[in-house]
Each structure stands twice: as structure tokens, then as C-alpha cells.
Amino acid sequence: MRLTILLVLVTMVLVGTACGGQPAPTAEPAAAEPTAEPSDAAAESPTQGDTPEPTDTEESAEDDADPTATPTGEQATEAADATATLPIPQPDVEEPTIDIPASITAGAPSLGEVPGVQYSGNSVSQYAQSATASSGQAFQAAGLPNTTTCGDRPTAWSSGTPGGTATLTLVFGLPVTPTELRIIETFNPGAVVRVDVLTIGGAATTVYEAAPTSVGECPRTLSVPVTGVNVVINGAVITIDQSASGGLSQIDAVQLIGTQP
User: Fold this and answer.
1) Alpha-carbon distances of 176 from 9, 173, 238, rounded to whole Å
2) Contacts of 36 (CB under 8 A, 6+ apart)
3) CATH superfamily ID and name for 130-147+156-259
């Protein structure tokens, strides 16, 4: 047995010497490939069945997108302030207008104006500030005279009733103690039959009376001196009777002369 083993060994040595004298290399074991390290993404990836937690950015986006989200206290205050500053639309309201007929305002003096006022020492002259009448357009007798020729003119007052009677009441802007009234007649003069002056309280004093007549001079100014009236007046009433002419008589303006108290 031992001899057999020895022969085997000698044979192996001889074979190795025949091959170059170097023993046959033994195969080295293959290097094991490194195991791949798990990536950060794989490490952070949740395992099946786990629910990822939302980030702050995702929560903010969800709040902005959710129309039913309840506003915080600060958001509610800002919304209330914005609503309070919004202008409240007002309905258009049309202001009412008042139409004044031209027949009332045409030629009438402005409120507070004293037409043709003139001072001479202690004496004051002025024309009527306003006028009313029993008929016709009385305002044509107020203010400065503006009818320069004789005839039936629209710039002077007439009663509108040929041959009849009428009254013309005048108001003056400056109360005075009267000394004279001047009545400018521009058509069928001679119809003035009575003149009364009026105190501020409305008391009347007759200062002129005459019968109706026809006068050739036209236009003419009828001067009525006022004596015995020692009270302050601011009005006059003129009565006309047109029976003498049978037509219309016209008065263009009335001037009051007096002294101021």
C-alpha cells in the first residue's frame, strides 16, 4: 500500500517537471461583486402599505385650492375691511326742475335790485321794483322806462279791457317819505283818475283824483305832487278809467321821489 502511494507521488513529480518545472496554477476564486447600496430615493420610498406625510408646500396648496376652507381670524378681518371700504352705489336721483313761464320773468327786475335809484342831497328817486294789476301784464310797468314812442306797445302795461277800468299796484325797493310820483303814459294818456300811496303796513292815502280825459300829448309824464303825507311809504296804487278814449291806455313806468327817514 505504501509502495503504491510512493509511486503515485513520484509520478506526479515527474509529470510536473516535464511541464516546465512549475506546478500547475490553481484557480483563484472570482471576486464577489459589491452589493449595490440602496439609493436615497429607494430609502425614502415608503414600503407598500405606508401613507406618505404631506409637506408644508402641499398643505398650503391644498388650503388655497379648497373653497370651503374656514378662514383664519386674520383672513376674516382682512376680508371684512375690504368689504367695508367698497363704495356703495347710489341710485341716480334726478333733481326736480321748476319751469317758470317767461311771461312772469321777462323784463322783471332782479330780487333786491332798485331800478334807477338816484340820490340828490336828502332826496331819493327810484322806479318800481315790482308790480301787480287787476288785469294785463303788470310787470311791464316795473323797472326803468323802455317805451319811447306813443302807441299800443308790448313793452308797456295795459289793462286788456278797452274802455274799462283797472288798477295797477307798484312796490318800491327803498321806503321813503313821498314828495312826488311820476307816471309815464305811452298810449291814450289821461285815463289816470286816482293815485293812492301805501305805507309798509298797507295803509292807503289818496294823493290824486281826476276825471278821465283825452290828452293830445303822447307819450307824457303825469306828475303827482304828494303833500301832507309824513309817513314812510313803499307802494302806490294807480286807478285808470279808459272811458274817455274808448280804447286801451298804457303805462310804461312809475317813478317815486322822496326822502329817506
Assistant:
1) 173, 9, 18
2) none
3) Galactose-binding domain-like (2.60.120.260)
Instruction: Identify how many contiguous H helices and E strands the chain contains and give both numbers.
Output: 5, 10
Share the mean pLDDT of the chain: 76
Q: What are phi and psi of 48, to 5 degrees?
A: -60, 130
- Rounded to whole angstroms, the Cα distance separating 185 from 220 reads 5
What value does the mean pLDDT take over residues 16-22? 51
Residue 192 near residue 238, CB atoms below 8 Å: yes
Q: What angle do CA 82, 88, 90 make, to 5 degrees?
A: 170
**In this model, does residue 57 exceed pLDDT 70?**
no
Strands (E), the chain: 118-120, 123-127, 130-133, 157-158, 165-187, 192-199, 204-209, 220-225, 233-241, 250-259
**Cα gap 59→192, rounded to integer Å:** 104
Q: Rounded distance, CA 163 to CA 141, Å?
A: 19
Per-residue pLDDT of 143-158, as tens digits, reads 999 999 999 999 999 9
Q: Rg (Cα) of the chain, in Å, rounded? A: 63
Question: What element of type H or E holds 18?
Answer: helix 2-18
Closest CA to 191 of 130, 128, 251: 251
Q: Tell whether omega for the bond before 34 is within 30 degrees of 0, i.e. cis.
A: no
Q: Residue 246 is placed in which grid cell?
A: 274808448
Cβ count within 10 A of residue 15:
10
In the three-class reduction of DSSP (H, G, I as helix; E, B as strand; rest coil), residue 220 is classed as strand
